[in-house]
Amino acid sequence: MAGITPIIMPKWGLSMAEGTVGAWLVEVGTEITVGMPILDVETDKIANAVEAPDPGLLRRKVANEGELLPVKALLGVLAGSDVSDAEIDAYIAAYVMPVSGADDDEQAGPAYLYADVDGLRIRYARRGATEGTPVLFVHGFGGDLDNWLFNIDAIGEKHPVIALDLPGHGQSEVKLPGTSLEALADFVARFMDAIDVAQAHLVGHSVGGAIAAQLALAQPQRVATLSLIASAGFGPEINSAYTEGFTSAASRRDLKPVLELLFQDPTLVSRQMVDDVLKYKRLDGVGELLTTLNQGLFGGGKQSALPGLKLAQTGKPVLMIWGKDDQIVPAAHAAQAPAGATVEIFDGVGHMAQMERASDVNRLILRHIGG
Amino acid sequence: MARKISMKQAVNEAIDQEMSRDPTVIMLGEDIVGGTGCDGEEDAWGGVLGVTKGLYAKHPNQLIDTPLSESAYVGAAVGAAACGMRPIAELMFIDFMGVCFDQIFNQAAKFRYMFGGKAETPVVIRAMVGAGFRAAAQHSQMLTPLFTHIPGLKVVCPSTPYDTKGLLIQSIRDNNPVIFCEHKNLYALEGEVPEGSYTIPLGEANVVREGKHCSIVTYGLMVHRAIEAASTLAKEGIEVEIVDLRTLSPLDMDTVLESVTKTGRLVCVDEASPRCNIGTDIAAQVAMHAFGALKAQIEQVAPPHAPVPFSPTLEDLYIPSAAQVADAVRRTLKGGKH
Hints:
The complex is a heterodimer of chains A (371) and B (338).
Chain A: E1 4-8, E2 18-24, E3 31-32, E4 37-42, E5 47-51, E6 56-61, E7 68-70, E8 74-79, H1 85-94, H2 104-107, E9 113-117, E10 120-128, E11 135-138, H3 152-156, E12 160-164, H4 181-194, E13 200-205, H5 207-218, E14 223-229, H6 240-248, H7 252-260, H8 271-281, H9 286-298, E15 318-323, E16 342-346, H10 353-356, H11 358-369
Parallel strand pairs in A: 11-12, 11-13, 13-14, 14-15, 15-16
Antiparallel strand pairs in A: 1-8, 2-4, 2-7, 3-6, 4-5, 6-8, 9-10, 10-12
Helix pairs in contact in A: 4-5, 6-7, 6-9, 7-8
Chain B: E1 4-6, H1 7-21, E2 25-29, H2 55-58, E3 63-65, H3 70-82, E4 86-93, H4 101-108, H5 111-114, E5 124-129, H6 144-148, E6 154-156, H7 161-173, E7 178-183, E8 190-192, E9 206-209, E10 214-218, H8 221-235, E11 240-244, E12 247-249, H9 253-263, E13 266-269, H10 278-289, E14 299-301, H11 312-318, H12 322-334
Parallel strand pairs in B: 2-3, 2-4, 4-5, 5-7, 6-7, 10-11, 10-13, 13-14
Antiparallel strand pairs in B: 1-8, 6-12, 9-11
């Protein structure tokens, strides 16, 4: 049926199966432009706005606020004014949820894979397109590949995507190959060897950005382009209230205010998000590992290495994204971007731009790597 | 975290991993191997419900099948703990604890205190608790309050496989006697559990569900009844908050008070007999420390003050149901100061 665009329950992250419909942000009859937030959806991990994939009029709200619906369920309908109400009714009545099995997730195999890298068991996800240079996502200190839950599938529509849990993070083995950016970047290169990736577009967040920059310096042939979000490695300042607090927090009560520093809107920190981080932190050995890593990366309350400042010599295309209200790594570090870099600073965004402003970040990355 | 295992497997995995980590972790109990010294012991039954199946093959020097004398092997476990081992005694049904009260109440619980803090007793006594197993009055009790009453004992009663593994590992590592209560009707419950070892601190409650209208404070199997009640009530526009205590001693009153201060209403749900149970304790403490926050009477849901019946029909009526929990929430929402 030409001219009708369904708005469906998105899949944010590999583990999302359903979401709760939040508030509708626009009224029926509103003229919608691409990327306009249409309604809020809440998962057990985070709340975010569903944005319009195409322009059109919002013709129908199918889902009601508070409803719990599976991924790909029909939430609403966009169409031009030339489409009749009867056609819209027919479209809604005929809408069939893509059944699992025919689902592309199933064809792509299991959500998570494991690789043996220097004797360490590393969890990663590999999805998306089959042809082309892959996009490799590298998370930051204390993070995991779920930090990319709003990005993996969006970038995966055009490119092969890979996201890993760094050693000692997420569900990778609780052991470090070293505590320096050099050691971590070298490990990422060997991870690429292990999964047979010669070169990748690197997308790094926070410490993951510094690791990506270091890899571009040390082994430039492994890196096609760099997309760095709230990246470490561009200046000595780092909020040790965060790094120390994250390292030492032993209860939900201690951890929540620390995680709230990550977002411009602290209400984004859900109970589930705190629980997930706490579960990670309670694994045997993680506490000691984070203490060691924190000391190695941010000993004395300063960033120990600044590979970002030498990026110009690599000649790699660099995209730098920052939230103006970043409370962890100051957005002022964006001024240290290499000449010729694309720099984008978002108002009203904290340290987690890839979550807080997912669609914009995805568009910038796609444009940067040529998607 | 994709891997799901049952609560029974979570118990097995916790013991397995701790035995591998620390050779002083040993286990004593009736039939926990299931025929030591006989043919086929490597694949033996592994306890009355098979919880410890396979452990003997992996750790032949760390499990001991004992004679049918709870007083003897619980005493042995307490003594071994005082001498530097980390024993786990399995007592099958908590109902059998009566014959070893001296070993537990008067010895294990008192050593640290009576030896001026110089003695440690890192013993875990595991036992099945709860009704619903068609096992009649002598194998179905929820005796958590008895042990909670005794200073010097820690008492744990988990509701999920994740909590079971983390709390059991923490209990084994704790330097004090811990009574670890496993609800037999939760053994088959599956949930996501990390493969590696991890711990959950004793004395930390878990907010299972957030809500603003009423707090339900509970533990063990009743957590699941509360969750069921919460789904029913949600359809009526009532949002309940569920606090799973997880550990009954030490007790996380901070989380309880925080929740009641927010909601202003409290329903205590306990599968133990209604007099002097965990629910009455919570109710008394909330009345003392958060009276000003209460908007209405505190409600209690518990079984009748009667032995657990053998008749399946009566046993099902005996155990508090989700409907009873939902009714209690509705009562406290209707009540209140006017």
